[in-house]
Amino acid sequence: MSSEQDEPREFTAQMSVRRGRWRLYVVLLNTTEQWPQHDFGGAWPVPTFTERTQALNALGFEPVPEAKWTWTEDTETHGDPSSAVLLIAAARVRSRAGVGA
């Protein structure tokens, strides 16, 4: 018999470039916990799907079955069309069994 705590919980993982470095983090809403994150290093190349999955695994998460990364474009300065462009990727992930998230 499995308790609700043992069930994998779903979250959104996001990846973005900040100060020239790709960073992946798992969004933990409605909590005061620090969001798990992984720094990939330099801005190029963009981390591969495999590298992102390995980073998620190291953080105790995995992509949900059939997960796809979606990309969104934003501006560094809200409302300023001449501002630098930010790329943000997102995918649904779940906590791995036995890993508290």
Properties at a glance:
1 helix; 101 residues; mainly beta; six-stranded antiparallel beta sheet; 6 strands; single chain; 42% strand
Write structural notes for this entry.
The protein has 1 helix and 6 strands. It has about 100 residues and is mostly beta strands. It has one helix at about 50-60, and strands at about 10-20, 20-25, 35-40, 60-65, 70-75, 85-95. Strands 1, 2, 3, 4, 5 and 6 form a 6-stranded antiparallel sheet that branches.
- What value does the Rg take, in angstroms? 15 Å
General shape: globular
Topology, number of strands: 6
User: Which bin fits the share of residues in helices?
Assistant: 10-25%
- What is the rounded distance between the termini? 20 Å
Average pLDDT level: 86
Low-confidence blocks of residues: none
- What's the order of the H and E elements? EEEHEEE
Work out the strand percent: 35-45%
Main sheet makeup: 6 strands, antiparallel
Write the layout of secondary structure elements.
Elements: E1 10-18, E2 21-27, E3 37-42, H1 49-59, E4 61-63, E5 70-75, E6 85-95
Antiparallel strand pairs: 1-2, 1-6, 2-3, 4-6, 5-6
Short description:
With 101 residues, this protein is mostly beta strands. It has one helix spanning 49-59, and strands at 10-18, 21-27, 37-42, 61-63, 70-75, 85-95.
